[in-house]
Amino acid sequence: MTMEEGKRIGIDEYDVIIISGDAYVDHPSFAAAIIGRVLWDAGFSVGIIAQPDWNNGSDFEKLGKPRLFFAITSGNVDSMVNHFAPSKKRRKKDQYSEGGIPKRPDRAAIVYSNIIRKLFPESAIIIGGIEASLRRLAHYDYWSDSVRQSILADAPADILVYGMGERQIIEIAKSQDSMRNVKEIVQIGGTCEKTSIREWKNKDKSGIIELPDYISVRDSTDEFARAFAMQYQENNPVKGRRVAQPHPKTVIIQNPPARPLSEEEIDHIFELPFQREAHPSYKEKIPALEPVRFSITSHRGCYGECSFCALANHQGRIIQSRSRDSIIREVKKITRHPDFRGTITDVGGPTANMYKSHCPRWSESGACSRTEKATCIGCPSLVGGDNEYLGLLTDLSAIRGVKHVFISSGIRYDLIRDEAFLRAICRNNISGHLKVAPEHISDNVTKTMNKPPRKAFDNFLEIFIRVGMKKPKKQYVLPYFMSGHPGCRIDDMVECAEYIRDRRLYTEQVQDFTPTPMTASTCMYHTGKDPFTGQKLYIPKGREKTIQRAMLHYRDHRNSKLVTEGLERSGRGDLIGNSPLCLVNSHYKKRREKR
After folding, report:
1. What is the pLDDT at residue 592?
2. What share of the chain is helix, strand, coil (3-state, %, to 5)?
3. Hey, which residues does 192 pair with through a beta bridge?
4. Phi then psi for 182, rounded to 5 degrees?
5. Which of 347, 332, 487 lies closest to 407 in space, CA to CA?
6. How far apart are CA 388 and CA 78, in angstroms?
7. CA 35 to CA 76: how far, in whole Å?
8. 392-396 long-range contacts, CB within 8 A, separation 24+
9. What pLDDT does 469 receive?
10. I need a surface site. Which of 98, 133, 223, 458 has the fewest CB within 10 A?
11. What is the Cα–Cα distance from 100 to 111, expressed in whole angstroms?
12. Residues 18 and 36: beta-carbon distance below 8 Å
């Protein structure tokens, strides 16, 4: 992070300088660390400027000018999601900063890029990370309530890397190292490039799908929905085509996603010499490190395609699993860490029990998208990896120095094919709460979310109860629920609250839907329709969203006013009273009427 550190190992000029909105943590869960390690492993020297002061240009100059390029990321989380709650209230803490103190600007990737372009006008700039990845085309921005241009049109960067980025960043670095001009580096999978309006008019457009232009999607919700569905269809590393979207001053060209990593490649990345520590210059802890310090990433990708999730557009739908031997080697290394006390906090990915899932079609035509079917789950071609996952957990538990191996990343309950799997993980890998994400139980809402119907969750709970009856220590399901999603009305939230009541579920893990860039749900929120079917949807906004969230916490007396209002709006006054079945006490209503 300093020139002095570089000089101690013989570096006077860095090949690549990474600028990150996060504090620097050398851990495989932190994007800047992975990209830095991968570049270093490929023979390139890397310097990192973490959370530079954007009001002081000297922070950006402290490592000098890189030989190849600046690589800019806002960090592990979109800076606007990081800064604001769903209510648009600014957060006071930043989990990715030293001591939790916010140290990055809004729209960090754009701010950092503008500063670098001013200070180093001749240097190449590559932007990447989740913020750039999910804002790569024209997108709805919840915080400004507007359709914004591609971040590559707003930022003075040369190339945008989307997805996980390791393969792309190495190819870009090798291309520049061979003296190629950054403007000549084109058609790399998992990147976006831009061209001038004049060049676009004269360009051979064969094989390129042209989306409705920025002005059209800004001014027409129908065109916005059509553009979203078109680009989603091409989000396939095997058969996806290039996509172009004209903007007023440039044309953004999105290449197909990068080819998925092989088992050998992903093994190699996660076995690079990560220290699992924050940089020694920090005097206070980085809050985001502590929960994941001794966790294991077993795989990437998710084929669930939940409407509100951007994983399909970032990690992709094809599961990329590590080998059992690689993970065992990583855990053995962890046991030698001086702070390790015997607990592996998680072995998983976006969904833990998708480890080793595969489909014969993936190598030939890529994963099916929801434009072809609702989801891969339940498809007869899909081969699950339950036995491999259980075997892995068993092997890790047998390693000397390991006392516990837990699953914290959550499981897809609709992927559980037999009771034996659930019994095994409840016996050995759950500390007391099993995390699952039904998100809702109203079939009207789960259909819009592209989640399993209520019956699937009912079936899972029945199995869980049977399994739990055979255990000496009681265990609980910790369900994640969401309010305020497109298509969700107060009546649906009342139904959800009654379900929580009847099954005595604990509802700490709830969230109000936040329209984040490049998800199907965000498209629904902005346009009022399903982009894949054209069906019009009800969109809860304003106070109704607040009431819907309160319904999930109806047991909290501080929400009595909102819950009462919601019940009255939905004509469910029968749930206001002193009966055990009531959601709110009638005493509150009487006090309100007196006032």
Report:
1. 53
2. 40, 15, 45
3. 160, 254
4. -60, -30
5. 347
6. 34
7. 12
8. 392/298, 392/324, 392/327, 392/347, 392/355, 393/347, 393/424, 393/425, 393/428, 393/429, 394/428, 395/324, 395/328, 396/296, 396/327, 396/328, 396/331, 396/344, 396/347
9. 64
10. 458
11. 21
12. yes
Question: Which residue has tokens 């969700």?
Answer: 488
String of b and e for 231-259 (b: at least 16 CB within 10 Å)?
Answer: bbbbbbbbebebbbbbbeebbbbbbbbbe
Determine the Cα–Cα distance for residues 124 and 183; give it in Å rounded to an integer. Answer: 9
Report yes or no on 280 lying in a domain. Answer: no
Q: Tell me what pLDDT residue 522 has.
A: 98
Instruction: Say whether pTM exceeds 0.90.
Output: yes
Same domain, 412 and 494: no
The sign of the dihedral angle between the CA atoms of 229, 235, 236, 241 is positive
Domain holding 413, by residue range, is: 294-358+373-430
Contact (Cβ atoms closer than 8 angstroms) between residue 358 and residue 301: no
From CA 514, how far away is CA 256, in angstroms rounded? Answer: 27
What are the backbone angles phi and psi of residue 370, rounded to the nearest 5°?
-70, -5
User: Using an 8 Å Cβ cutoff, are 151 and 109 in contact?
Assistant: yes
467 Rama sector, left if φ>0, alpha if ψ -120 to 50, beta otherwise: alpha
**What pLDDT is recorded for position 274?**
97
How far apart, in whole angstroms, are the C-alpha atoms of residue 158 and residue 254?
Answer: 13
Measured distance CA(418)–CA(471) in Å, rounded: 18
Question: What per-residue confidence (pLDDT) applies to 433?
Answer: 83
Domain count for the chain: 3
Same domain, 247 and 99: yes
Backbone angles phi, psi at 58, to 5 degrees: -65, -30
Whole-number pLDDT of residue 586: 73
Strand partners, 50: 20
Q: Are residues 426 and 436 located together in one domain of the fold?
A: no
Q: Are 450 and 520 in contact (CB under 8 A)?
A: yes
Pairing of strands 208-210, 242-246: parallel
Q: What is the DSSP letter of 235?
A: -
- Phi and psi torsions of 339, nearest 5°: -95, 0
Give the CA radius of gyration of the chain. Answer: 25
Angle among Cα 51, 59, 92 to the nearest 5 degrees reads 30
Asked if 161 and 190 count as a contact pair (C-beta separation under 8 A), the reply is yes
- Residues 420-426: contacts with CB under 8 Å, at least 24 apart: 421/353, 421/386, 421/390, 422/463, 422/464, 422/467, 423/467, 423/470, 424/390, 424/393, 425/390, 425/393, 426/464, 426/467, 426/468, 426/471, 426/475
Ranges of the chain whose pLDDT falls below 70: 371-375, 469-473, 587-595
User: What are the CA-CA distances from residue 495 to residues 441, 452, 521, 556 (Å)?
Assistant: 8, 16, 21, 18
Does residue 526 form part of some domain? Answer: yes
Structure tokens at 463: 């199995």
* Residues 440 and 390 occupy one common structural domain: no
DSSP string, 237-272: TTT--EEEEE-SS-EEEEPPPPPPPPHHHHHHHHTS
Residue with tokens 């590393």: 237
What burial letters (b/e) apply to 154-170, b meaning 16+ CB within 10 Å?
A: bbebbbbbbbbbbbbbb
pLDDT at 96: 97
Are 331 and 461 found together in one domain? no
| 113/17 same-domain check | yes
